[in-house]
């Protein structure tokens, strides 16, 4: 049997060609996608390419043309695409349900307030009358540039002050419809002095969905009034019944479970029915906030990166519920993540390849581990052997005494067990693919089989370029920009340039929903298990190719358009990547480059 060290040497690209196909590649690297799928594609030669206005550009070519080792590629038509999906889905379903209230979309500026994005929202949103949701003076000032360009709707839901109220008055005077949320008595005092501003009731939902932003909802959440408080405040501020036009409830971002979405929409409906029947009869806009989950991986598995429902389910339920009413309200769509996530791709070059853990070479030719594993015929045998070995290793870590021979064996085990067992596992699974469940259901084997063998250093800073990866452990889909027509070689953790151990991507979700021969389930060089048809696997790193000498090997981190731009951190003063902005003008692709004088490598 070859050990892995030898394997590296005998490895040859031609020799190991298999029936790898682009269809498998698209599944493994998450490129079958309802929003970006037609735009970010794999071309016939295995390059990741962007299609705009009937032309297709390869990401690798663009990076090399401008000589960038790191860049953000912004594909602005993807913003337009998401807006169209929302608008057309709603319109079609409204027709089917006989819903007459209409849709009022608004973009929550906190999701991405940079000029380029706001400008795209403005332009692509023109035909839908897309408005804005803002929560700070800074956002209002940015939006002021557009105040004179034609009226849109503005929902303000930040902390209120006289200053803020005056700016909002300015928008109203230019013809905008301005609705200001009330969250407390403080807000009511300020709004008493600005009688022309329409009022929104920001209500706390009882329901708390799952996910990272569950604390946004529930009665102890930061935002909004309880219905109880509202009813009490109404006694003193009688005008609120007259001025309240909007019911505003937000349950947090990225609600990935359909049952949670349903329960939340039902609650919003209930609050609306109760409030309109109890004095707030002039409420005409219902805003169930954001929360429509973005499919970072579009396989509907019902996990945080892969919601188990779509925009169709979302509006279908909402419209079914609200069309029960005699008088239909206008429904507000206030999602931002779904609209802008797809438009920004971070592309970075692999600048170094390192072993993931210390590689120890034993002095003897074959290791003890190898000899023992030779006799193993089934996954069950393998588990029994591993149990013995772990007991031996465990003894040492408990501080018990070893003989010199035992210590040598233990060291040999620690350094070799991973590679040897992984090799054995791939042999056993190839021979008996149906035993893959035995591996997946055994935490130790699963971890070994999907563990990284390399650490790739990328010319980027996670803190600057995809901060949510460290802040909230956000999953971002990663794909190579080249060689997608080849099987991946290794599973690699992606390290950044900062001195911070948190600057790494070490988790990857593989969910391949097609039949693939067991021969192709493994990486070519380190023999990691990177897929099992129809199963969702969590890998300890990204399946990638080993860059060959002299090759500019780039990695793309997809769907980084929501929340990342404004949260950028300046760790180690590494930030400021150049941007390649792609748009479609009169059916033609247009590419513009913006240098930001970043200091990377
Ligand atoms: C953050 C926020 C949104 C955006 O939600 P996403 O699901 O992330 O798009 C919408 N409305 C309000 C009130 C928010 O605070």
Describe this structure in words.
The structure is a single chain. The protein has about 600 residues and is an alpha/beta fold. It has three domains: about 1-95 and about 340-355 and about 450-600, Beta Barrel (Lyase, Ornithine Decarboxylase, Chain A, domain 1), CATH 2.40.37.10; about 100-335, Alanine racemase (TIM Barrel, Alpha-Beta Barrel), CATH 3.20.20; about 365-450, no CATH class. It has 21 helices and 23 strands. Strands 4, 13, 14, 15, 16, 17, 20, 21, 22 and 23 form a ten-stranded mixed beta sheet that branches. The protein has an eight-stranded parallel beta barrel with strand order 5-6-7-8-9-10-11-12, surrounded by five helices. A three-stranded antiparallel beta sheet has the order 1-2-3. It is elongated. The chain starts with a helix and ends in a 7-residue tail after the last strand. Pyridoxal-5'-phosphate (PLP) binds near residues 110, 111, 253, 291 and 334.
